[in-house]
From TrEMBL:
<dbReference type="InterPro" id="IPR036188">
    <property type="entry name" value="FAD/NAD-bd_sf"/>
</dbReference>
<feature type="domain" description="Amine oxidase">
    <location>
        <begin position="15"/>
        <end position="435"/>
    </location>
</feature>
<dbReference type="InterPro" id="IPR050464">
    <property type="entry name" value="Zeta_carotene_desat/Oxidored"/>
</dbReference>
<dbReference type="InterPro" id="IPR002937">
    <property type="entry name" value="Amino_oxidase"/>
</dbReference>
<protein>
    <submittedName>
        <fullName>Protoporphyrinogen/coproporphyrinogen oxidase</fullName>
    </submittedName>
</protein>
<dbReference type="Pfam" id="PF01593">
    <property type="entry name" value="Amino_oxidase"/>
</dbReference>
C-alpha cells in the first residue's frame, strides 16, 4: 500500500526520541506522535515561577549509562550541563539520618546498616564480583540469581541488608514491591552504575536531553494514537479521528499501553507484553519560600526511608541541594516520594489529599516543611517503572528472538531496567530491528536479530 509516513514513532519520551534520532541519522524519514502537549515523558521538567521541577527521573550515573552518555555527546551537551550532584544519599534508621548510602565510605560509617549488615554487604559484593560478567544489564534474565525476588535476597544475606539497603533503594527509586520484583535486574544495575558518589543531574532540568533531541526531529504533540493495525506493506494508525499509514511503526510506550494500542500483535509477542507490568509512581514537589535541609551531621541531597520505619514515604529529595539552579534565590524545592501502597491509594485521589498526606509525613523528617510551603504539585505516573517480575524475565528471551516486523517496540520494559538508561538502550535495539526489517521485509522466519 502507499504510505503517508516512512516510520511513525508513537511516544515522545526518552525511548521514542532516541529511536527517532537514530533512525533519522540512518537516513529514514521519521514522524514522532505524542499524546501529551510536551515531550519528555517521565523525564519531563516543569518550569514555574523560577522553579525547575523534575516530575519523574531525578539523577543519572556516570557509569553504566553508555547509551545515555552517547546521546549526550551527540547532542553537544557540555560537562557543565551535566554537573555532579553534591553530597550524599542517606538512609533513615532509628530516628537518625545516616549518610553515605551506596558509597564505599558507608562500610565505615554504617549508612544505616548494622555491623552484621555491613559484613553481609561485603559478602554480597564478593559473591557478585566473582561472577560479574553474568550480571549483564542487557540480559537480566541470565543472572545467577535466576527469578528470585529482592525480598528473597534476605535468605542469603540477612534481613538487615534487605530492609535497610535493597528495599529502600528499589522502592524509593523504582517503586518496586521487593516481594514481587526480581533481584537480577536490580543487582545488574547496581553493579553497572557503582557508587552513588559521582551521580549526575542535568543543570537545566532532567528533560534537557529529551528537549535537545526533540529540537532536531519532527514531533507532533497533542495527537493521541488510538490503535495500530498491520496491513500489507506497512501499518495503519488511528489517531483522534484521523488515519495515518506508515511502512514501520515503533511503539515507544509502556508495555500495557502498547498491548492496548496494538490488539492484534502476533502471538509470540503477547505473553511478554502482558507480563511486562508496571508499578505506579506518585510524588509531590513542594516549592518552598526558604531552603530547608535535612538534619544530618553532613549535608545530604536525598533520604531513602525503609518500609520498616514508614508506610507513607519512600524518600525525600532536596532538589535545591541536588542543584542550586532548581530554585529562585533564597527559595527551596523538595520532592516527597510515596510508598507503593500509598501510591495506589492516592493515584486517583484529589491533589489536595495527596499533598496533605505526604506533607504531614514529610514534616517528621523535615521540620518546618508545612510553614515554608509556597505551592505544591502532584506528579502521578500510572505506568511509573517496569516491575521486572520473575514472569517477565522468563518470557524475555523468546520475545527478543522473534523476527523483525512492521511494528516494533522500545521502552525501559524491553530491558526490564527501570531507568532512563533502560529507555535509551532499548532504542538501540529497536532501531536495529527496524533497519533489519527494511532489508528483509516479511522475513518472519528470520532468527534473532543481534544487537550491539
Amino acid at each position: 500500500m502507499t504510505t503517508d509516513l516512512d516510520v511513525a514513532v508513537v511516544g515522545a519520551g526518552a525511548s521514542g526520541l532516541a529511536v527517532a534520532h537514530a533512525l533519522r541519522k540512518a537516513g529514514r524519514g521519521v514522524q514522532v506522535l505524542e499524546s501529551s502537549e510536551a515531550v519528555g515523558g517521565r523525564m519531563r521538567t516543569l518550569r514555574q515561577d523560577g522553579y525547575l521541577i523534575d516530575t519523574g527521573a531525578e539523577m543519572l550515573a556516570p557509569r553504566g549509562y553508555r547509551a545515555t552518555w552517547k546521546l549526550i555527546r551527540e547532542t553537544g551537551l557540555t560537562p557543565a550541563e551535566t554537573p555532579r550532584v553534591p553530597h550524599s544519599i542517606a538512609t533513615w534508621r532509628d530516628g537518625r539520618i545516616r549518610p553515605d548510602t551506596g558509597r564505599a565510605r558507608g562500610l565505615l560509617t554504617g549508612a544505616g546498616l548494622s555491623v552484621r549488615g555491613r559484613l553481609n554487604l561485603l559478602r554480597f559484593q564478593a559473591d557478585t564480583a566473582r561472577r560479574r560478567k553474568e550480571f549483564d544489564t542487557d540480559h537480566p534474565e541470565r543472572t545467577p540469581l535466576g527469578t528470585g525476588t529482592v525480598a528473597q535476597l534476605a535468605d542469603r544475606y540477612g534481613n538487615d541488608l534487605v530492609d535497610y539497603l535493597f528495599q529502600p533503594l528499589t522502592s524509593g527509586f523504582c517503586g518496586w514491591d521487593a516481594g514481587r520484583s526480581a533481584a537480577g535486574p536490580f543487582v545488574s544495575h547496581l553493579m553497572a552504575t557503582g557508587s552513588t558518589a559521582d551521580w549526575r543531574t542535568y543543570r537545566d532540568g532532567m528533560d534537557t536531553l529529551t528537549r535537545r533531541l526533540a529540537e532536531r526531529l519532527d514531533v507532533t504533540t497533542g495527537l493521541r494514537v488510538e490503535q495500530v493495525t498491520r496491513h500489507p506493506g506497512g501499518a495503519r494508525l488511528e489517531c483522534d479521528g484521523t488515519t495515518l499509514t506508515a511502512r514501520s511503526v515503533v511503539l515507544c510506550v509502556p508495555a500495557p499501553v502498547a498491548a492496548l494500542l496494538y490488539p492484534d500483535a502476533p502471538e509470540d509477542e503477547r505473553d511478554y507484553l502482558h507480563a511486562s507490568t508496571y508499578t505506579p509512581m506518585l510524588k509531590v514537589s513542594c516549592a518552598l519560600d526558604r531552603p530547608l535541609r535535612l538534619r544530618s551531621r553532613r549535608p545530604v541531597y536525598a533520604l531513602v526511608i525503609p518500609a520498616v520505619h514508614d508506610r507513607v514515604l519512600n524518600g525525600i529529595v532536596i532538589d535545591h541541594v541536588k542543584h542550586p539552579g532548581r530554585v529562585p534565590p533564597g527559595a527551596g524545592l523538595v520532592s516527597l516520594v510515596a510508598t507503593p501502597d500509598v501510591t495506589r491509594e492516592l493515584l486517583d485521589a484529589p491533589d489536595d489529599q495527596a499533598v496533605r498526606r505526604l506533607r504531614e509525613r514529610g514534616e517528621h523528617y523535615l521540620p518546618g516543611l508545612g510553614e515554608a510551603l509556597r505551592t505544591a504539585r502532584v506528579h502521578r505516573f500510572r505506568h511509573g517503572l517496569p516491575e521486572a517480575t520473575p514472569r517477565a524475565l522468563q518470557l524475555r528471551t523468546s520475545f527478543l528472538r522473534r523476527p523483525s516486523r512492521t511494528v516494533e517496540y522500545a521502552g525501559d520494559w524491553l530491558m526490564q531496567r527501570p531507568s532512563s538508561e533502560g529507555a535509551f538502550r532499548s532504542a538501540e535495539w529497536a532501531v536495529a530491528r527496524v533497519l533489519d526489517y527494511a532489508e528483509h521485509p516479511g522475513a518472519d522466519a528470520r532468527p534473532e536479530v543481534r544487537h550491539g
